[in-house]
Amino acid sequence: MANVKTEDEIILFEREMKEFWTKLKSVYGTEQISQTLALRDSCKESIKVLSEKWSKKLKEGDQMIDKIQEYSNEILQQSQRISENQEHLTEIKSNERLMVLISLFVFALDEQLQFVFRHIDHKDPDKPYAFTLSINEQGDYEVTSCTPPLDCIAEFQLKVRETNNFSAFVANIRKAFTALSYK
């Protein structure tokens, strides 16, 4: 009996739903339904356009990430080259110090000391820049030759006689050669 009552209620509910739908159609009419469908289609089209636009933006973002990674790799390679060049420069400076020591030894034997600098002119790194040094009768340092000639040699000689700072003297001559190479 309860089963029959439930079936009657379902039939009644379905009938009421049909009546409601019929009333709804008459109240809103087919025009509103058409507008709603058109609005739905417009929303779908807008979503499609936005999806394409965001998909394009996502691809551009991926390309930017790839470029950043590429630049990062390039920076890493350049950093490695800089590190290698610094090691090479340290080696060159070490070799120059060794040459100074050897030259000092020769100076002690021959009473003349010749300094030959390389890696001064960036266009011609093997080009030699040299000066010869001796000690005159008064016991002062004296440059006996300089190739290429420097106008500031006399000034440097006076300074080394005042300060007795030999390493600054040699460094200043090297700087003067470097400045000359840029003229």
TrEMBL record:
Identify the GO cellular component terms for this protein.
Ndc80 complex; nucleus
What highest taxon heads this organism's lineage? Eukaryota
Give an example GO biological process. Answer: cell division
Q: Which Pfam families match?
A: Spindle_Spc25
Keywords of this entry: Cell cycle, Cell division, Centromere, Chromosome, Coiled coil, Kinetochore, Mitosis, Nucleus
Where can this protein be found?
Chromosome, Centromere; Nucleus; Chromosome, Centromere, Kinetochore
The record's similarity note reads: Belongs to the SPC25 family.
What is the designated name of this protein? Kinetochore protein SPC25
